[in-house]
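Appendix C reproduces, verbatim, an entry submitted by the partner laboratory led by Prof. M.T., so that reviewers can inspect both the input and the predicted structure.
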Amino acid sequence: MKPSKAEIVRRVHALPQVSFEDHRLTSFAGLVLFIALFKRLDLAARLRRCFAEVDRDRVYGLARVVLQLVIHVVLGFRRLRDRDYYADDPLIARALGVSKIPDVSTITRTLARAGAKEISRLGGLVRDLTLDRLETERLARVTLDFDGSVLSTKGHAEGTAIGFNPKRKGARSYYPLFCVISQLGMFLDRLHRPGNVHDSNGSVEFIGECVAAVRARLPRAVLESRLDSAFFNEQVLLGLEELGVEYAVAVPFAAYPGLKHRVHSRERWHRIDDQWAFFELDWRPKSWSDKRRLICIRQRRAGRRKGPLQLDLFEIVDPEFEFKVIVTNKTTTAGNVLHFFNGRGLNEAVYGEAKSFAGLDYIPCRRRAANEIFTLSTMLAHNLGRELQMQVVEPTRSTSTTRAPHHELKTLGTLRHLVLRRAGRLTRPQGRLHLSTAASGVAREEFESILDALAA
């Protein structure tokens, strides 16, 4: 029977009286999912092995502080000072294995003890966790995308410099080079650099290290890479060819007048579809030793006609063309190479997600080592957010021409709103620790599915 209006509507006049008491309440009941993931990955022990030499039985060692930074970022906080908002949260204290959460001064002093060896070991841990997931997925084809990303700061952090910075011109920044596994949407590694270096600075050695790491775990997989025009030099291409990596690299053809004239004067183009057309040629700059396969591509776009518009049933548009040139050692069709190269936009989405929801673009300290540790912690937090869901979600895509991720996953921000930020209470009925939470409906279903998968 349909309820009446009087049975549904209630008049509300009084405000409840607010009191603040310690009942072992937590605002982040969903953190228990990440605690289960940490245990499954043995993360705490692996962090302790990374920093065993510098920690030396310290209560608040680098291992515990890095774990706190990961939790800090996962919960949606950026500034280290935001630690004060969860200083008394019992569930976060349990995740860290302490009764008192370290304060900001303790965090910064501990980060200052990090050296090059500790940074390298933490980077190795981030890489190993991603490689573990690659082995689990058993991919036959792995795509490594390399690109730099600007991390700006308002202060004068150690190692920053004024360089290329499209959003905040003149600001000091770092300009690390990242490697992303396209099929996973996870970071593999990063090369730390100041903000005033060229995009390809140090790239040959870094690319070789990343390829060797993946090859050691997946010796039979086909490795491929996509790079923008900043990496168009013979050393990079020769390095990829020696490593047996298939590549597609953008050519800055406007810098080569002869090539530019051949592209713009070309009259016969082969059709890919209604939007794209191409022709191929073998070409090399004069200083290079060998010619390589170049695919010259033209994109048709409808542009507005300049001048007064005709006010009639339609607006007249003129076709405009945009051009780009790709050098590749792939033997597939030009259309497949085009779609493969255009898939580079997927790694931009990874950077955007990590900056928006994992604090990748935040520079917290003045010391370079502390900032490197924080950057690696944000990369680890992003990867763990994807790993948590991959433990439950089955792949929904096979390898596509753009090399899109195989799993359709939520962003860390969405996961945070759905399951992490849930009120809960820790109790001990009959001596057994119990967490009660207000999650219901879809949130409860997702909560239970992840927890059951991690406990299996």
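The longest helix spans residues 368-390. Additional entries are available on request from the coordinating office.
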